[in-house]
User: What shape does this take?
Amino acid sequence: MNRHKHQLAVIEPSQIIFAGIMEAFRNAETATQLTGIDGLDKFIRLTDENNPFDMVIVNPAVLPNRIKEIRKIKRTYPKLVFVGISANLVDNELLSLYDEMFSIYDNIEHITQRCQKLMQEYSSDKQDDDNENLSEREVEVLKLLIKGMANKEIAELLGISFHTVASHRKNISIKTGIRSQSGLTIYAISKKIVSLEDFD
Amino acid sequence: MQYTQNIKIKREMKMLGLIEENQFLLLTLQHFGIDFAVGDKSVSQICSENGISEDLFLIVANLYNGYNPKETLSFSPEEIRQIITFLKNSHDYYRYDKYPEISSYIRQLQENHTGKTFLLLEKFFNEYFNEVMDHFTYEDKVAFPYFLELIDEDKDNSPSPYSAHEYLDHHTDIEIALGDLKSLLLKHINVNGDLAVRRKLLFSLFELEFDLHVHSLIEENILIPVGYNIEKSIE
Assistant: This one.
């Protein structure tokens, strides 16, 4: 396991909410290095491969019109976790950029613990090099996906939430660069994750 | 896909220099029905010789060079006819040119290598492409005649069974499929040798992807707004 301090960036235009987030993470005694960042442009400048952030908490209000740039960052840094804490309803396109969205009414402990867990999951070292760094769980989801199962069915079968399945699915596509089910099937066969006979 | 931005095309520029800078402009010429032997002629000269609207040509050629029009555009009925001919010609290029070309490369790979991977790849490509073909045929047979009818001034305003709102875009499907094919070829499938065929296949995929991208931009930025505006003016 990776024991380094997780790097957490916070982009929040409201001073009072910003102060609240910083305070919450300081009090949570998580192994987290907090950096408050003034705007998305500065975040983009500060992010580089040698010194990547593990997570960014970014207010969805600063993202409209910047969606393309966010997608690019996400492609470049697939391990970067995008988290939002929002006071408003967020439209679906914006929401799809986020790995997790909290409400400002969520319990503080819930938010900090969940963030901590997400950072651990995303930066964990239990990766299999032959599978483009797909985690064991992602391979499991992939196998079910290419059998034609819907997210909901997969969630029920594995006993995880619909949202978690969706986020695994998104990660599979980010890591492999493949979005369609047929494409993923060919991927899985050529990587010997499944064999052709499984489809007969 | 990396879209590099080239210079912004102006009417007095020489076509030859522009092609040398961005070879994809050959596709612009072809879809407009303009011959490649452009000699020493300027954009203006070429347009007037071929009966193509200069303004329209500049907008489309600049899309190929990476410039999206910022202002709202308006077009004459003749220009709309020219846009539709351009889009129809693009459909023919996808149907009769790119599709057989890409298929034949995948077929060659399949013949040269044992294992089922390329067989699956071919099936995958065919499935998506046939779906997209159906959509192109629908545009040729239903959507384009509707737009032509809209701009026809003599027509009675009887309610049409169709509307620009229904002009849905299926191109994303093929864009996803092309992206997947590229990822499979560049990241995942291990084959020995056959670099020449694989390179030709990839070049072909990149070319198709680029042209489809501009195709969608033309529909979204030109054709659909034109349809909305005319429908609004009729209401």
